[in-house]
Amino acid sequence: MGGICVKPSGGSPRERTSSKLSSEAYVLQSIREESFRLKNRPEVRPISVDKKPNSVRRVRDDHFEKKKEGSEVILANIPSIRTIPKATEGEQVVAGWPSWLAEVAGEAINGWLPRRADTFEKLDKIGQGTYSCVFKARDLTNKKTVALKRVRFDNMDSESVKFMAREILVLRRLNHPNVIKLEGLITSRTSSSLYLVFEYMEHDLTGLVSLPGIRFTEPQVKCYMKQLLSGLDHCHSHGVLHRDIKGSNLLIDNNGILKIADFGLASVFDCNQSVPLTTRVVTLWYRPPELLLGATHYGVSVDLWSAGCILGELYAGKPIMPGRTEVEQLHRIFKLCGSPSEDYWKKTKLPHSTAFKPVHPYKRRILEAFREFPLPAVGLMETLLAVEPEQRGTASLALKNQFFTTKPYACDPSSLPHYPPSKEIDAKMRDEEATRQREGERLEKERKESHIKQHAILKGSKDGRPMRDSYSGPLVAGNKYCEISRTSKEDEIEKKDVSCSQVRKDEVDHDRHIQEAARRSRIEKMRVGEVEGKEMVRNVVYPSSRLSK
């Protein structure tokens, strides 16, 4: 495989917020590298890539790198993204499309007209992804609610535009009740941004699962899984890998219809292709072991693994393998699903197999871990969560599994309960609100405890102990000192164990009078310029003889 490459980021997976930006750049570059190779194949179109002056183009060929200077001819592995004739490109620009889009990804917009931004009214932000933001909006022309997805890309970088256009091409290729429908694009001839217009969906699976008190019944779980696998079967039969199946990308409307969304990491694939693919796809909790081990040749099995994780999540009410790092995620997988056989390690020779191969093989314990789940559900999970990809089968075979053919059958989507609008962003807001509420309760409890302690101190002063004064300083009582501070706590006072019973009230009043007189004197001197500086030493006791001067 050949590809234009840059120095990869040393960041962690995109789930780690500490190095999010560098990780995003690495993922984006990894996906771009899928678009190039150095082998002659008839189904791909050659394009010329010119080297900038005084620079060197780096091209990776198989397992080593070669430097080639000047212009290179490479082959783009995106058979559906083609340059359109100049005449058509000109027509698209005249029609209102920006030239940066018409020149690079004309086929993605072929036959469409751009929508104007002023024909939509933004309402609320309903989603935030790695490469996009999603808004709820009102289509003023068609009088309906839609979702607007603004994709992050650099319109001055042709490869970034191609990466963005790939999602449009994939969506235009698919047409299924369980796949989100692209309804249009918003841009203009002078615009540097692009919005994708989608049908509006009230919920996503993550939001519903996180609703307090929500537990899906077996017919409801079967209904959602049947729709998910039907959508995946359509994608796979049309040569599309989604590569990011997770709860927040499974949208649900008020009629109970589930639709697979967010094809930003999707790729067109061929079962017989030998082109390496990137491993930097699929959110960590739903990522299969072969990707964690560095596999670059994979197929529909990666989406089926994610579907198995979703099945477990629907019953458990939470993610079943929430690892924090790639190493921890792989460890969780092996502990639950068992480690691969010795033949698998020898056959695949994955890049990270030496580093991550367990010293002692793990036993498979899915049945034990999920013994509270219905047996047919555990049986389907056993298939979808097979550590060896070829054992997971296909989405079509999964739909024929005993899980769907035994009672109770999947319910009709229209019979599903009507829930309040709930998306992943709503779940995060609920979690943040709960955290704020707990923090408020903690602070209120501390305030009450502090009030009780202060009350006890004041009450104790009536029994012979002095009240706390309005200043911090020593009270002189014969040869004894009693440290009294307005910021001291009762327990700190008690630890000193100093008897203040000999301090008479008139001595306390006299000392206070001296302190106040000293302050007034210094303030007066500052006013007439005799004292410079802004800080005053509050705890110095001045002799009374100086006050007469």
Protein described:
The strands form 6 sheets. This protein has a 5-stranded antiparallel sheet with strand order 7-8-9-11-10, covered by helices on one side. It has a 3-stranded antiparallel sheet with strand order 1-4-5, with no helix packed on it. Strands 2-6-3 form a 3-stranded antiparallel sheet, with no helix packed on it. The longest helix has 38 residues, at 424-461. The chain has 18 helices and 18 strands. The protein has 549 residues and is an alpha+beta fold. Helices cover 37% and strands 15% of the residues. It has 4 domains: 2-33 and 36-76, no CATH class; 79-200, Phosphorylase Kinase, domain 1; 214-422, Orthogonal Bundle (Transferase(Phosphotransferase), domain 1); 464-548, no CATH class. A hairpin with a 3-residue loop joins strand 7 and strand 8. The chain has helices at residues 20-33, 86-94, 99-105, 158-173, 205-209, 218-237, 289-292, 301-316, 326-337, 342-348, 353-356, 366-369, 375-384, 395-398, 402-405, 424-461, 490-496, 505-527, and strands at 2-4, 36-37, 45-49, 57-61, 64-68, 72-76, 120-128, 132-139, 144-151, 182-186, 195-199, 203-204, 240-241, 250-252, 258-260, 267-268, 473-477, 480-484. It is globular. Helix 3 packs across helix 4 (158-173) and helix 8 (301-316) runs antiparallel to helix 13.
